[in-house]
Amino acid sequence: MKRAERLPVSKEYARGVSKGETVCKVALMAVAALVFCGFRPAAATPRGSAERSTSKPAAGSGATASRPQGQIQVHVNVVNVPVTVLDKQGLPVIDLTRKDFRVYEDGKRQQIRYFSSETRPPLRIGLLVDTSNSAVRVLKFEKRAASEFAYDVLGEHNSRNLIFLQTFDSTSSLVQKFTNDPDLLNSKIRHLKAGGGKALYDAVYDACKDQMLRSGPPEDTRRVIVLITDGMDADSHHTFDQAIAMAHRAETAIYTIGNVPWGYSSPGDDYLRQLAQQTGGAAFFPLEHEPGTDLLSGYLAHGQIDSMQTNKGLGAETGIYTADRMVQIADSLNDIQEQLQNQYSIGYTPTDNVLDGTYRTIKVVASRKGLILHYKPGYYATPTN
Predict the structure, then answer these.
(1) CA 168 to CA 152: how far, in whole Å?
(2) pTM of this prediction?
(3) In the β-sheet with 101-105, what is the strand arrangement from edge to edge?
(4) Running DSSP on this structure, what letter comes out for residue 86?
(5) 216-265: pLDDT as tens digits
(6) Interior angle at CA 249, CA 246 and CA 254, nearest 5
(7) Which residues are CB-neighbours of 366 under 8 A, at least 6 positions away?
(8) Structural domains in the chain, sorted by start
(9) Which of 166, 222, 262, 292 could make an S-S bridge to 301, C-beta 3.0–4.6 Å?
(10) What does the alpha-carbon distance between residue 86 and residue 342 come to, in Å, rounded to a whole number?
């Protein structure tokens, strides 16, 4: 192969190269001087941590302040605490300010550095639907309510919020991974079918471990599970306490909706209340009130009709569900959506900033009396990989 001919080099270009070499030599000498004087670059920190700064960061993240040359940067975690505030009637309270809140970590008061009642981190919601044998009669109404909830939360297809769909019977199954497409989610909801055992605790454990822990840094999102079930468990490999512990590790609030009809007591109701209380969520029992006497618009339940034989013949022993039941479940989902829309975002940098893996408890107090607060009970002080 013929060797390529060298292009002629002008004197002006040669002089430029010579000057460039001189500049490079000077720069190298400056770098060497800095090394000799003991300058070290900033130490790397775990992803997801935020630098100490006097300015407010973008929603859900830390801000980087400019540093004088040669100063080592210091990084600390920002703990994000979404707080829902309700009045005695259960309605959201939306007129509070930063001064109305106090935050404590392990009993020590923390300085609230970031506060917002308008800009909130996006939602990461797990919609967990009971598809066991006990849900056969109610599933069609839950599906309609869940579809409405998906459209309310996601709205347009470019929503910053994401929802995943998971069902559980004898095992838990991921039906749809995180998406902001309400049409796609609705199509998956419509095809749900019931039948099989019930592994409730496994469903909560798996949702937190496999989905929530992989949904991004907790300070950048609000993690929520919406659980529709009767609260009973028969087939789980994980215990109730293990499910709670995983929810704590994933910093996920659980909102429960009980689907047991009026007239029946269920020990599962207590478990649903505990799941909500211990994770910073709320429990709803839309069907626990007495139904009306209008059998066309209400639903039948034990004791509503004098003749028990007639009651059983109508199917009231397990409940005959009509449009009224769907509306009540949809109302509970709407209440959850409204609470999430009106949360306060509170952020602080803990006084104990050592990431030693311990669990830190959180307590939020409002100065105004008579209010009900829901917030995550704590977090694990571990670095984000």
Answers:
(1) 24
(2) 0.74
(3) 108-110, 101-105, 359-366, 378-380
(4) E
(5) 888 889 999 999 999 999 999 999 999 999 999 999 999 999 988 776 77
(6) 65
(7) 85, 96, 100, 101, 373
(8) 123-324 (3.40.50.410)
(9) 262
(10) 10
